[in-house]
Amino acid sequence: NHAWMCLNSKDLHRVKAPWKEWAEKGLITVVDDVSIHPDLLCEYIKKMSAKYNVRMVAMDTFRHTLMAESLRKIGFDARDKSDIMQVEPVVQECFNRNLFVWGDNPCLRWAVNNTKRMRSSRNIGADTGNFVYGKIEAKSRKTDPFMALAASMCYDHLEEKVEYMRQIKSHFVEEVLKLPDTVVHGLYDETSAPHIISVGFAG
After folding, report:
1. N or C end of the chain, less CB within 10 A?
2. pTM of the full predicted structure?
């Protein structure tokens, strides 16, 4: 889990958290700009992809349009998932059974403590029995690290989708190798990322 802090944010003076200390520990990245450019986030994802087997990227709808192009540049396409209430029971079960283990990460703990679980649609007079997540205080108590965690849990039938992507990739490799003077670079077996392939053409 990693976070970014914008130095030119209008709400920065309201944030009552030791973010400078977190930056020194490498838990957050401080950006001296008016906003966090999507390319900065994608550079981090690309870096982590070299260390971990990052198969997919998930996010909510808030900045999906801004992030989409930068994600495509590094070979990902984020799933647009606005309905976190569908995964809320799973998140709650993880909390109830103490299944979340994220080590000594005060930034993530702070974000979790800034988050409230509230009934969906109650503000319009309809209690559906479902729950969503909101900020305890909108300006100074940020929830982004936790919301990123919740979004990452929104994938359903992940293994089936990964297997389908591998089938498409295998078919692509099989067909492209039929072309003359064509080389497939790197690995393309079960150990490789299911969505990335590099092909070279002579001449």
Report:
1. C
2. 0.65
